[in-house]
Amino acid sequence: MTRYPKAPRRGAALIGVTIALSAILAASGTSFLCAVVMRGKQSAYERDAIQALYAAEAGVATAVAILNSGGEVKRGLRGECGDATWEYTGGTPGSYEGMQFCGTAAPRIGEPVARTLRVTLQRRGGQFGVARWERVPVDAPPKAPPVAAPANGGESE
Length: 157
What we know:
Elements: H1 12-68, E1 78-81, E2 84-90, E3 99-105, E4 113-124, E5 127-136
Antiparallel strand pairs: 1-2, 2-3, 3-4, 4-5
């Protein structure tokens, strides 16, 4: 009976375990990094949305100040508030109801963020003030119009 020497296999299991642990750690690290990046983008968007809202509020305050000084607020009135801008986009002609102010934040990541306020101003004691204040919901992206069917029912002549 001939005996063959055993092949040296010391450490083979250790190499397999090390490779498996490395793969698990790499997957965990990638997952954590993706979560951190997404949270950073979400925070930037929220910050921009708040800045746009504050810019619209600055537009309302400016309009109240103009009216209280005897001036007139006209469509297209605009200004700046930090890195954001605001614009008076109109309201009910001849009244101070439904006046809309749009604030737009300069984008840090992606597209600019806009928020719109609709206010009603009233004169009380000789001074204008805000009687009604509401945020206009952010519009969903426009949908494509439906494709009209041909007048002849799709048949060729």
